[in-house]
Amino acid sequence: MAAVELSREERALYNPAFTAVLCTRAVQGYDKEYAAPCPLQVAVTAAVMALQPSIRAVLPATTGTGLMGWLDENDAVRVAMTRHAASLAAVVRPGLLFALQSHILHWDSEGLTLVPRALTKTIKGDTEQSVAIQKAAVQLGRWLPSTGSFSTVLTLLGVKP
User: Fold this and answer.
1) 0.85 exceeded by the pTM?
2) Closest alpha carbon to 150 in 35, 3, 42, 19
3) Rounded to an integer, what distance in angstroms lies between the CA atom of residue 90 and that of residue 88?
C-alpha cells in the first residue's frame, strides 16, 4: 500500500500535538458548559468537525442554536461527516492519546477532565486557521451535547459511534 502524501499544511494540522490541543479545547468547552467530565465521543467528534473547513464555515454564532435545525439548513455537514469522519477520527485518536500521555487531559470512568494549568484557556496559534480550528473545537465541545444523548447527535450527523 502506497503512503498518502500530505501537504505541509495537512501535516501541521494532523500532527498529534495539534489534535491533542483540539481534544483539549473540546473538553474545555464541555467543562465550561456542563462543569463535568467530558465524554470521549464529544472530544473526538468536536475535533473531527473542527478540522473540516466546510463545517467550521457554517457553525452557528451561538450555542443556543438547535442542532437539528442547523443540520436541516446545512445538508453539507452530514455529507462531510459521512465522507471524512472515519479518516479524521484516525488522525484525532493519536492526538487524544498524546494528550493523555502528556498529562494535558485525564481520563477515568466518568470521562475526560482537564489537568489544571496544562493548557491555557487563551487560544493562540501560528496561523489564523489554527486559531479558528481551536475556537471551533471549544464551541463544538459546548454545543454538540446540548441536543441530548450523544448517540442521537452522532445519528443526526450521519456517523456511527
Assistant:
1) yes
2) 42
3) 5
